[in-house]
Amino acid sequence: MSTTHGETRRDRARDPGDALKKPSLDKDLEKLVHVEAATRTLAGSFAAPALALLFLGCSGVLAGVYSGVSTDAALVIFAAILGGYMALNIGANDVANNVGPAVGARALTMTGALLIAAVFESAGALLAGGDVVSTISKGIIDPARVADSQTFIWAMMAALVSSALWVNLATWVGAPVSTTHAVVGGVAGAGIAAAGWSLVNWPTMGAIAASWVISPVLGGVIAALFLAFIKVNLIYREDKIAAARKWIPLLVAIMAGAFAWYLSIKGFQKIWRPDTTTITLVTIGTFAGVWALMRPLIRRQSRGMENRNQSLRRLFRIPLIFSAALLSFAHGANDVANAVAPLAAILHSVQFGDVAAKVAIPMWVMLIGAFGISLGLFLYGPKLIRMVGAQITKMNPMRAYCVALSAAVTVIVASWLGLPVSSTHIAVGAVFGVGFFREYYTRRSKRRRELVRRNSDPLPDIPEDEMMSRKLVRRAHFLTVVAAWVVTVPASALLAAVVFWGLTTFVPAF
C-alpha cells in the first residue's frame, strides 16, 4: 500500500499539470455542445424567413381560391403576395411604437408584449378596420387622370413593392418609420412615372411633409408636459401614496377618454358611425366612468405600500399594459389599410376593368393584412421594440405611460386642429420628448436636489459638471431616426418610379 501511495505521489510530482487536464471524453462532449449550440443558432436564423415565405405562399393560395378571378388570376395572386409582404414589414416596424415603452419599462416581458400586440392588432384590423378604403392613399393622386386600368394596376404594384422594401430596409437599419408615409411616397412616385407631375395633389403632399415636423414635436411636447406633471405632483411629494390615489385615476381616465374618442371616430366603422354629439357623450361618459372605477382600485392596490418611487412604478404598471393593448388595437384598425388598400384596388381593377376612388375590402384580403402584421411582429419586431423601449432613452412605467398618454392625446389635438400627423412619429417623438425633458430637468440640478431632499429615495452624489453634461437621449439613434423620417417619402417615391418603369418595360401586358 505504501509503495503504491509513494508511486502516486512521485507521479504527481513529476507532472503536476496532469491533475488539471480534462479527460478526452469531456473535451469531445464540450465540442459536441458547441456544435449543437451553433446548429440551434443557425436553425433559428432560417426559421423566421421560412415562416415568412410560408405565409406569403398561403397569401397567394388564399387569393387563388377566394378572389373569384378567372382571367389574370396570376396577377391577383402576385398582388396578394406583395400585400402580405407589406403586412409583414408593418408588423416588424410599426407595431414597436405601441409596446416598446412598456417593454423598456419592464411592465411587460418581450413575450407578453408580442402576444398582446398580436392579439389586439389583429382584433383592431378585423373588428374595427374599415370595410371600404380609398384606392389612392390620402388622396395623393387623381384616379381620373390615370390612362387605363392596366396602368393603374402597375402603379399600385409599384407602390406596394417600393413601400414594403423601404420599410424592410428601415427595420434592418433599426429606424421606426411611418408606413403611411412609405405608402404615400410609393403611390406618388408610381403616379408621377405613370402620368407625370400634374397627377399628384401637391397641397396634400405639402401637408404630409409638414407632418414630419408637427407629429414628433407635438408628441414630444405633450409627453414632456405629462412627465413634468407626474414629477411635480407625484414623485417629489412627501406623501407619494396620497398623491398617487389622487392623480393616477385622473391620468388613467384621460387615457380611457382619449381612446373612446379615437375609436368612436376611427374604429367600428362597419357597425357604428356616431355623430359629433354621440362621440362627445361617449368620451365624457368613458372618462367619468373610468375615473370613478379607478379611485377605489388604486386605493386598494396602494394599501400598505411604502412611500417610495418604486411603489409608484408598481401602480402605473397595469394602466401601462392596458394602454399598450389599446394602442395596438387602434393601430390595427387604422394602419391595416396600408397593406391591403393597394391590393384591394388591384383586385377591383382586375375584376371590373376600371379605376375606382373607393373599393370594398373582401374578408380574405383583410385576413392577409391582419395576420401578416401579427406574424411580422413575432418574427422581426423584437429588434425595434428594444430600440424604441430601451435604446433611445431609459424607460420606467411612469415615463412609458407618458409616452402612451401622449400618443392618444396628440391624435385628438391634431385632429381637432386639422393637422396631418403620423402615429409612428408621435410615439417615437414622445419617447424623444421624455428623454430630452429628463436632460433638461437634470441640468437644473440645484432645483432638482432641493426637491428630492425630502425624498425617501435619495439620488446618488453626482458631480455638478457630470450632471450638466449627461446625455439621456442617445444621439446616434436620434439622428438615424430623423434621417429615416425625412427620406421616407422621396425614397419610396423614387423606388416606386423605378419599379413601375421595370414592370411596364419588361413584364408583358395582360
Automatic annotation (TrEMBL):
Subcellular location(s) per record: Membrane
Record's protein name: Phosphate transporter
Transmembrane helix found in the keyword field: yes
Family the UniProt entry places it in: Belongs to the inorganic phosphate transporter (PiT) (TC 2.A.20) family.
Stretches that traverse the bilayer: 46-67, 73-91, 103-128, 152-175, 182-200, 212-235, 247-265, 277-294, 315-333, 359-380, 400-419, 425-441, 478-503
InterPro entries documented for this protein: Phos_transporter
UniProt cross-references to Pfam families, sorted A to Z: PHO4
Main location: membrane
Region described as Disordered: spans on this chain: 1-20
Membrane topology: Multi-pass membrane protein
GO biological process, one term: phosphate ion transmembrane transport
Superkingdom classification of source: Bacteria
One MF term in the entry's GO annotations: phosphate transmembrane transporter activity
Keywords associated with the record: Membrane, Phosphate transport, Transmembrane, Transmembrane helix, Transport
One GO cellular component term noted in the UniProt record for this chain: membrane
Lineage: Bacteria, Pseudomonadati, Pseudomonadota, Alphaproteobacteria, Futianiales
